[in-house]
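Give me the fold.
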Amino acid sequence: MTKRPSGDVVVVGAGMVGAACALYAARAGLDVILVDRGPVAGGTTGAGEGNLLVSDKEPGPELQLALLSARLWSELAQELGGAVEYEPKGGLVVASTPGSLTALTELASRQRAAGVTTAQVDTDQLRELEPCLAPGFAGGVLYPQDAQVMPTLAAARLVRASGARLETGRTVTRVLRDTDGAVRGVRTDRGDILAPVVVNAAGTWGAEVAALAGVRLPVLPRRGFVLVTEPLPRRVRHKVYAADYVADVASDSAALQTSPVVEGTAAGPVLIGASRERVGFDRSFSLPVVRALAAGATGLFPFLEHVRAMRTYLGFRPYLPDHLPAVGPDPRVPGLFHACGHEGAGIGLATGTGLLVAQTLTGKRPEVDLSPFRPDRFDHPEHLDRFAEEAAP
């Protein structure tokens, strides 16, 4: 006798993206089961800064997704109140030379044409916006739409708001498929969960979940450290970063890269980033990286030289070779959806990703064209050589 389905959708991964997928699928009327081998926000989400950014994205598909997500985050913040610690503080990108300011201004112009709100900031205005900023910067651009949430709280709150059945401490060992190859659920170390749809929201481990369904998705880990100071009175008002941060995010290099990113939090500590390097899942502490972060931060805000660093932590960002996430149905396996590979932007892009997945699941036209995010795009010949280079140690 055929077992009856346990639900309509199984979402694998209880990080921010999985939580958003569960929320919007449930609100679309689907019976959702959310599964994770660890706790809610126990992976990349729990090691994130909670950034919701449009400022660091070139015009294109990812920026479209970011703008949709920013709108949805604002709506959720009004709905959920202070439960997610949503802070629309804005982003301030600063340029150290006239040449970098010209490049930043040109980027902002293209972003503005794509729907981003920007404001040119001259040298005097920089000090008005950030009185503790180091002198000597050529200017900058203000991005009022940039915001921040507390990632672990926000993920937990979205899961609770979804009403989805939460199954933590349960490891998925196989994606079940019927004789025609279509999804029929997942096998776990505590039994099968049956559903006609499985959403791979496993973040950095998205490649592993895809492989359990018999398909290839080249998600790679990109390690990043964050330095956390002692609690302080609010002296950094915005998320402040150097203009070269955007280029570092888009870089294909596996080597260590650091670019200064500094922001205050509602709780008081200042968060300092950003670093990125491809070293597999190596969790070892790196003193040179932390020193580089500290040096970059004091270059932006000299007062930090006299502030104590309380701790540092690291996380692994789910990186795909073309810097776009995999979002939507996988044409290779009926019933398999992907929502992973967002790199360091997963917190910000989660809401839009969740809504687009839910719209597709229920037969609606997604608000953003999903074709650039096709999960099978890396099977095409033009991507094979690049993937081989990216996957090389």
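The longest strand covers residues 309-319.
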